[in-house]
Design a protein that fits this description.
This protein has a single domain (about 1-85, about 145-225), classed as P-loop containing nucleotide triphosphate hydrolases (Rossmann fold), CATH 3.40.50. Helix content is about 35%, strand content about 30%. It has eight helices and ten strands. The chain has helices spanning about 40-50, 70-75, 95-100, 105-115, 130-140, 160-175, 190-195, 215-225, and strands at about 1-10, 15-25, 30-35, 55-60, 65, 80, 150, 180-185, 195-200, 205-210. The chain has a six-stranded mixed β-sheet, with helices on both faces. The chain has a four-stranded antiparallel β-sheet with strand order 2-1-4-5, with helices on one face. The longest helix has 16 residues, at about 160-175. It binds adenosine-5'-triphosphate. Keywords: Amino-acid transport, ATP-binding, Nucleotide-binding, Transport. Belongs to the ABC transporter superfamily. This is ATP-binding cassette domain-containing protein. It holds the Pfam family ABC_tran.
Length: about 230
């Protein structure tokens, strides 16, 4: 379980998050939505330890990890897929995966999750489509065997069929019960289908929260229209 408790954080003198509290239960999936500049990425970076908190705390499985560096949080089961489908462009798909492990069984397991990558193992990552690179980025993070997976805008700039595939992967992973997901999304429909609850962030504050599912679309749209 991941919890942000009363977090205030920002850059230099600029405060971006103001007393933000969110909770991701064990095996649950939570979406954070909001307009550009609302502070969504900053919230994820606080969870990972890339942006320090000014006040408040970050708890992982009930333990206070606020003082811990990102690498120590990763060791405790946090996996982060930043925005932008990042990969090592000059390396092949397989080499990108092998940066985490060369164990064939582990690589086979993530390829079962993302079968589209199987036929692309010898292709340079820089030559993959955006959707393929996103799948590679998630697959690479899954190789670290996270218990808490953090995804920043996984559908940004990718085709609808890949969006559906990623939605299926997220549901499949959380159905296992041992992995929790926190994702930031602009795509409200996707976010609510892929997760069980949501938060709306506006100007660094949580302005709305609730259960996910298609029925929540109107409530989220109304919250974001304010
Ligand atoms: N490294 C940084 N240094 C200074 N200000 C930053 C930095 N990163 C983000 N900001 C500012 O913090 C605010 C929140 O940015 P953040 O990226 O968290 O928002 P966001 O909700 O993820 O937006 P988007 O949907 O556009 O990605 C913005 O005003 C942004 O300009």
């Amino acid at each position: 379980m991941l919890e942000l408790r009363g977090v205030t954080a920002g850059y230099g003198r600029t405060m971006v998050l103001d007393d933000v509290s969110i909770e991701v239960p064990v095996g649950g999936a939570v979406a954070v939505m909001g307009h550009n500049g609302a502070g969504k990425t900053t919230l994820l970076r606080v969870a990972v330890g890339l942006v320090p908190v000014r006040t408040g705390s970050v708890l992982l499985d009930g333990q206070d990890v606020t003082p811990l560096r990102p690498s120590a949080r990763v060791k405790r089961g946090l996996g982060y897929v930043p925005q932008g489908q990042q990969s090592f462009a000059h390396m092949t798909t397989l080499e990108n995966l092998q940066l985490i492990t060369t164990a064939r069984s582990a690589i086979d397991e993530v390829l079962d999750t993302f079968p589209a990558l199987r036929g692309l193992l010898s292709r340079r990552a820089g030559l993959l489509s955006g959707g393929q690179r996103q799948q590679l980025a998630i697959a690479r993070t899954l190789l670290t065997r996270p218990r808490m997976l953090i995804l920043d805008e996984p559908t940004e700039g990718i085709q609808p069929n890949v969006v559906t595939e990623i939605e299926g992967v997220i549901s499949g992973l959380t159905d296992r019960g041992d992995l929790s997901v926190l994702l930031v999304e602009q795509h409200v429909g996707f976010a609510l289908r892929a997760t069980g609850s949501y938060y709306v962030l506006e100007s660094g504050r949580v302005t709305s929260r609730g259960e996910g599912g298609p029925a929540a679309i109107d409530a989220v749209r109304a919250a974001m229209a304010v």
